[in-house]
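Please describe our next protein:
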Amino acid sequence: MTDTDAGADALTEAQGADQPGIRILAQFIRDLSFENPRAPETLRGGEQPQIELGVEMNARSREDGFFEVDLKLSAKAVRADGPVFVVELLYGGVFQIAGVPAEDMEPVLLIECPRYLFPFARKIIADVSSDGGYPPFMLDPIDFAGVYAARKAQEQQVGHA
């Protein structure tokens, strides 16, 4: 490597330090539960179940300067005669975030980071529901910005009450 190449690399790194960036360092299942309380009767079909979906996001900083983000997804399939299945997944990630001002960190952690985790969590839920004897349950894409905005609005209402 020549001195010119080293200088170009240093310049690229310096410019990159000012640019916002998110890097996933690790992803993992923190907790997974699948309940199939009435199998095998519910496996034979019947009426289409109603689905109740829950979404939660949490984030915390770590001593090493990285951030842990948890995405909790829960789905409950219910027919008139009772529950069909219940799945709960707490999926986590460790992120390195650079170039983001402190006032913008919360939306990055609770909107952008869950967007990175969601496709992997979605596949886990599809696989476990399929392994439970049902067609793969494919979660629709989630508007994490909308979930975040609703959460902030709820916090403001509670704060004013």
User: Anything to note?
Assistant: The longest strand covers residues 82-98. Residues 1-15 have pLDDT under 50 and may be disordered.
